[in-house]
Specification:
By secondary structure, the chain is an alpha/beta fold. It is rod-shaped, with a radius of gyration of 43 Å. Keywords: Coiled coil, DNA recombination, Membrane, Transmembrane, Transmembrane helix.
């Protein structure tokens, strides 16, 4: 669950508990409120608030934050791409690892999902109004430094990667605040060949890749089709040679048959003449 959605859910639980507490006391208008009970109720509220704060901090710890980002990333990749089209924890030749790569034909698109959201958490509380929604310099520096690191570590054309990498932010709120409300920050990251994506943007990108993979499979199918056509052509030429040879043999056989029939006719004529001559000779005697 993205951090902003989690925070909303926790606040909702807190407000619901507070509402139930108010309703409970309003149903006792004629009774004096027990100070001990009231004190215990507020102590419980404080304890719940501390627990909610602890839970929020847990999700902002670097190790846990990275785990959440990787989990959400893997779910999106697994849901929208075939297993052969992506790989988690891809290892480069020097032993370095990137959270995931997408295979686009013979190329790789690296994806990092470990951005330190806790370092820009103040943007979630930013209530700046007006036309100027530029990201403050401190947070902007965090993004640019991280983009430079991604570029240096994961963009490796010599190992088959494309000339860009994706920076995945599991918080839609942070993505919108930083890169939609302030497009200039996107331009700064693009100068490092790093493309920032939130859950929705990554979803659209994966859909594009999925359709692209279908298109990439067409050349392979065309190659197989050409191979089959070439085989059919070779077999057809062989069959033509066989027919030609057979036709020659048939012609020779027909000629031989005609010669034999002519010889037989001549032999028959000669035989008849000899028979007739024999008969005439016998009659004369």
């Amino acid at each position: 669950m993205p951090i902003d959605l989690l925070s909303i859910a926790l606040i909702g639980i807190f407000l619901l508990f507070l509402l139930l507490l108010i309703i409970f006391f309003r149903r006792r208008p004629s009774q004096t409120v027990d100070q001990t009970l009231l004190r215990e109720s507020f102590n419980r509220l404080e304890e719940m608030a501390r627990r909610l704060d602890d839970i929020g901090r847990i999700f902002l710890l670097p190790r846990t934050r990275g785990g959440i980002g990787e989990t959400l990333l893997e779910q999106l990749l697994g849901n929208w791409l075939p297993a052969a089209a992506w790989r988690r924890q891809y290892r480069f030749s020097d032993g370095g690892r990137v959270d995931a790569v997408i295979r686009a034909g013979s190329f790789l698109v690296p994806i990092d999902s470990k951005f330190p959201l806790e370092r820009v958490a103040g943007l979630l509380k930013d209530d700046t109004t007006g036309e100027d929604r530029r990201i403050p310099p401190a947070e902007r520096k965090v993004f640019t430094a991280y983009a430079r690191e991604i570029s240096e570590k994961y963009i490796r054309p010599e190992e088959g990667t494309l000339q860009f990498a994706l920076l995945y932010l599991p918080s839609e709120h942070i993505y919108y605040r930083c890169f939609v409300e302030d497009p200039s920050l996107s331009e700064e990251l693009l100068s490092f060949h790093v493309v920032p994506v939130g859950p929705s943007a990554l979803f659209l990108y994966l859909q594009t890749v999925a359709y692209g993979l279908k298109g990439l499979s067409l050349p392979q199918k065309a190659k197989e089709l050409r191979s089959h056509i070439q085989r059919i052509k070779s077999e057809t030429e062989r069959l033509e040679r066989l027919f030609s040879t057979s036709s020659t043999h048939l012609k020779n056989l027909q000629a031989s048959f005609d010669d034999s029939r002519t010889a037989l006719a001549r032999l028959s004529t000669t035989s008849h003449r000899l028979g007739d001559d024999n008969t005439e000779a016998s009659e004369k005697e």
